[in-house]
Amino acid sequence: MELIVVKFGGTSIGNGERIRKAAQSVVNEYMKGNKVVVVVSAINKTTDDLINIMKDAIGDNVTDKQMAEILSMGEMTSIRVFSSVIESLGVKSQFIDPFDELWPVLTDSNILEAKIDFKESELNSKKILKLLDQGIIPVVCGFLGKNSKNQITTLGRGGSDITAFFLGHSLDADEVIIVTDVVGVMSTDPNKIQDAKKLDKISVEEMRDLATHGAQILHPHALKYKDPLISAKIISYENGDLSDPGTFIVGPNEGVMMKSSMLCPEPISIIAVVGENMLKKPGLLAKLTDKLAINDINIFGISAGQNSVTIFVNKKDSIKAHRLLHDLVVEIDFLSSVSLGKEIAMLTLVSPEFIETPGIISDITKPLRENNINIVELTSSQTAVVIFVDWKDGKKAYEYVREILE
């Protein structure tokens, strides 16, 4: 017997036929002897319709409390419909909304972007286990929470996935299943490249980076709640089968935190290649990086300007890399010169929250500016910031910037 938490997205319960197929898939798992907790989103486009009606009616003169209450209607309707369909299939079910004494998700009072109170919520969620022991399938609103004043809150983007992963953790589930409108995670968007392949598995870290760069399968915020010890997968609603393999989400690796900071233990050297209109020369970066790659030299960072390309390599490889790149400068007419610069330190900060934190670059660099530490180079993605400073300032700079993650 296994305990499964399954979340159905809005598209997967987009009409009566899909709801019945979804409910049947849950009942099928129940009939195998498994315990199933269901989390549902609002029926497809319901939330958008509610928002549009509200805007047409009162414009922007709506309070956060009113907004949360109105938005909650989508999920509260879904659980009632879904639970009723399960019972029509001959299995006992109970819907659980924020007004129920069994409600598991307790939050702070940030109404529209609420954070889960883990200690209280984990304790409260155990009440659901009593229903499971009685052979009842609970159907829980995704996306919603309740604060200490018994007000409805919402968990923000990715809220229903957050609910599913959180319940998986707090109930010690064996598996969390995310049912959506795709067969799993693909090698690329199949709407753009037809021969895209489904991945059998993907790591949390890879999934997070994929999500932050536009993939709509899971919101990266939800992945912070993924328990490394619990199996999780993404499947399509099409087959109506929760045993569909889909794509498994692996990790995060034990001991690897979603937030991390690192000071590279060895000095990095800067090599600058200069030339004319380098950004307009197709294949130039490939030539530079291939020259180093075939000679087994790793690149820690690279930045390009109109008339220069800066490459960061380990100091121990710098002399060899300098010579190899000089050979290219001599061969290629539009390149002028190459220089080997000073030793620098590389600091790396990683957090899935960076993407949703306005001014994070300013927050990170402020203590360096205040302590007169010069930044040689800075690169960033949606979840990581890499800073290069003088080697002599490395340890001190690291202590300043790592505090941002605490």
Automatic annotation (TrEMBL):
Pathway: Amino-acid biosynthesis; L-lysine biosynthesis via DAP pathway; (S)-tetrahydrodipicolinate from L-aspartate: step 1/4; Amino-acid biosynthesis; L-methionine biosynthesis via de novo pathway; L-homoserine from L-aspartate: step 1/3; Amino-acid biosynthesis; L-threonine biosynthesis; L-threonine from L-aspartate: step 1/5
Keyword Nucleotide-binding among UniProt keywords: yes
GO cellular component, one term: cytosol
Annotated catalysed reactions: L-aspartate + ATP = 4-phospho-L-aspartate + ADP
Keyword ATP-binding: yes
One GO biological process term: homoserine biosynthetic process
Pfam families xrefs: AA_kinase, ACT_7, ACT_9
Keywords attached to this entry: Amino-acid biosynthesis, ATP-binding, Kinase, Nucleotide-binding, Transferase
ACT domain sequence ranges: 273-346, 349-406
Transmembrane parts of this sequence: none
Domain of life: Archaea
EC numbers, comma separated: 2.7.2.4
Gene Ontology terms, MF aspect: aspartate kinase activity; ATP binding
NCBIfam families assigned to the protein according to its UniProt record, in alphabetical order: asp_kin_monofn, asp_kinases, PRK06635.2-3
Annotated family: Belongs to the aspartokinase family.
Protein's name according to its UniProt entry: Aspartokinase
Highest classification ranks of the organism: Archaea, Methanobacteriati, Methanobacteriota, Methanomada group, Methanobacteria
Gene name of this polypeptide: ask
